[in-house]
Design brief:
It contains six helices and two strands. Strand 1 and strand 2 form a beta hairpin.
């Protein structure tokens, strides 16, 4: 999905070539995943000559929220707490990311008490999940 968002629209070949720069992957695997994403409503395709061109159906942040919610529902029975615990305990989480999570939680608590805007609306606030380093962003 990140490749399609970055490019705006892409063919299976475009995504395959971008992924191959980082790791070995079969073309048919990419094709299957894009078909599944289309079936789930995350991608829309149109035929251009002999290839299908895919584009995202929603902006990245909106879709990420939806995917995270689906993941939390499926894996953690709807409770975000175990996911947050796992993220905070992850040794790859930097001190800066921990501070940012703490700030977001504090901002959210303030907003619920009527003391300010939630972090997602605050200037410079993080959108979605904490930023990941380049290697993890794949």
């Amino acid at each position: 999905m990140k490749i399609v968002w970055r490019l705006g629209q892409s063919t299976v070949r475009d995504v395959y070539e971008a992924l191959r720069e980082r790791r070995q992957i079969a073309y048919t695997t990419v094709m299957t995943m894009m078909k599944i994403l289309e079936e789930k409503g995350h991608l829309k395709k149109r035929q251009v000559e002999r290839a299908y061109v895919y584009r995202p159906t929603q902006p990245e942040q909106r879709m990420m929220r939806s995917m995270v919610r689906e993941f939390v529902d499926r894996v953690f029975d709807g409770s975000a707490r175990p996911l947050l615990v796992q993220l905070v305990k992850d040794p790859r989480l930097t001190e800066k990311e921990r501070r940012e999570i703490a700030r977001l939680l504090s901002d959210r608590a303030d907003a619920e008490r009527g003391e300010g805007a939630p972090a997602s609306e605050a200037p410079g606030g993080m959108q979605g999940s904490p930023p990941r380093r380049a290697k993890e962003a794949e």
